[in-house]
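A reminder from the course coordinator: this example appears on the midterm review sheet, so study it carefully.

Given structure:
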């Protein structure tokens, strides 16, 4: 069954066997591991993962044509979920410590990552994420303070996860060829991280700051707090700095103060 990629779904199927093997091996899969693959496409990575004999193997795929093709190709070796990953409640999987793979559609990759960070809880958890992004997005995820790529995604991603780049991947590894480079990142949950009452508060704070990224930090602080002076004094902030000059930990501390004051 020949599958023509849908541009509307951001489909670029991975076809390079060497790259597929490297992605699979980066998961360091053991026989008792449970695996989830997001957007398996035509199943080339899926086939490689199956050879590692995972205990349970879920795939989430929105495109019904691909679901039919994967079902015929792999029979009963997979648990296929025909859903949009952005709308599916991952807690329904009820498995902890999943290893999650994903060649993510560029247009929704950031939102998928944010959802996965928000999801991790007592009812659903993962021990590693092996995800592919457009290189430009990966650079933003990995960015540190005082760099041009540093922003909301850098701060939110690093909150609960340790992140490492595995490799860059050229357009020739896909069909059809995208116009940009891709990057493969691996994420592992941190044991210790700051607990917030609601992670949406961190999203809100970073949105306020980085919507004003060229402004000095006094302006976003005044938007967030009735008395910004108390926050400035407590954290010993230099109000002449801009958002990209603040370390990630500073944003986490600002979020803690914000949560304390709004409740």
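Designed residues:
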């Amino acid at each position: 069954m020949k599958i023509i990629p849908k541009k509307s779904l951001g489909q670029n199927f991975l076809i390079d066997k060497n790259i597929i093997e490297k992605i699979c091996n980066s998961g360091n899969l053991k026989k008792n591991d449970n695996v989830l693959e997001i957007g398996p496409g035509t199943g080339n990575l899926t086939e490689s993962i199956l050879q590692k004999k995972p205990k349970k193997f879920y795939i989430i795929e929105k495109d019904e044509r691909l679901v039919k093709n994967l079902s015929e190709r792999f029979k009963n070796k997979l648990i296929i979920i025909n859903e949009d990953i952005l709308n599916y409640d991952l807690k329904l999987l009820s498995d902890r410590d999943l290893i999650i793979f994903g060649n993510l559609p560029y247009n929704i990759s950031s939102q998928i990552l944010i959802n996965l960070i928000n999801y991790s809880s007592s009812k659903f958890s993962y021990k590693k994420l092996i995800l592919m992004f457009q290189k430009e997005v990966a650079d933003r995820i990995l960015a540190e303070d005082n760099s041009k790529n540093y922003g909301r995604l850098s701060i939110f991603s690093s909150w609960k996860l340790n992140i490492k780049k595995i490799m860059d991947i050229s357009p020739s590894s896909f069909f059809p060829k995208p116009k940009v480079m891709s990057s493969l990142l691996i994420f592992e949950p941190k044991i210790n991280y700051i607990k917030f009452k609601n992670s949406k508060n961190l999203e809100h704070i970073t949105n306020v700051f980085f919507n004003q990224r060229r402004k000095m930090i006094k302006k976003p602080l005044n938007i967030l707090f009735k008395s910004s002076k108390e926050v400035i004094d407590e954290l010993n902030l230099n109000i002449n700095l801009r958002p990209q000059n603040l370390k990630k930990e500073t944003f986490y501390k600002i979020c803690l103060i914000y949560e304390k004051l709004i409740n």
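The chain has two domains: 11-189, 199-262. The chain has a mean pLDDT of 90.
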